[in-house]
Amino acid sequence: MSTPSDCRVSDTHEWFKVNGSTVTIGITQHAADQLTDITYIGMKSVGTAVAAGASVGEVESVKISSDIYTTSAGKIVAVNDEVAKDPSIVNSDPCGKGWLVKLEVSDTSAILALLDGPAYDKKHGH
């Protein structure tokens, strides 16, 4: 599965989809493939303020635990409770139903400076 062209992707394999001042964050297919079977997803609570570069949650698999980072400061306005209940959604649809959190941000410039989905996929051999 390729990364959508309307997403921007960080070097740590999070994708960001900007819609006005709301940014949806998830992990890429490449990251989901590397993690293999995801067993746990924990996200910070709605209303939590996060700084640029801060963790918004974590993903655990049978292989590793990994923090999920944001490139822009903001406030968490939504979390995907479905993936918390069924982490396998992130393995099967990481760039769609497997989104993790939504942030309300005032500055998207750091996100827009990241690679777009096709450039990320090319870099990682997809």
Write the layout of secondary structure elements.
Elements: E1 8-9, E2 14-19, E3 22-27, H1 29-35, E4 38-43, E5 49-50, E6 55-61, E7 65-69, E8 74-79, H2 81-85, H3 88-92, E9 101-104, H4 109-112, E10 115-116, H5 117-123
Antiparallel strand pairs: 1-2, 1-10, 2-3, 3-9, 4-6, 5-8, 6-7, 8-9
What does this structure look like?
The strands form two sheets. The protein has a seven-stranded antiparallel beta sheet with strand order 5-8-9-3-2-1-10. The termini are close together. Strand 2 (14-19) and strand 3 form a beta hairpin. Helices cover 22% and strands 37% of the residues. The chain is built from five helices and ten strands; from the N terminus they run βββαβββββααβαβα. It has a single domain (8-106), classed as OB fold (Dihydrolipoamide Acetyltransferase, E2P) (Beta Barrel). The radius of gyration is 13 Å and the shape is globular. The protein has helices at residues 29-35, 81-85, 88-92, 109-112, 117-123, and strands spanning 8-9, 14-19, 22-27, 38-43, 49-50, 55-61, 65-69, 74-79, 101-104, 115-116. The longest helix has 7 residues, at 29-35. It has 126 residues and is α+β, with helices and mostly antiparallel strands. The mean pLDDT is 94.
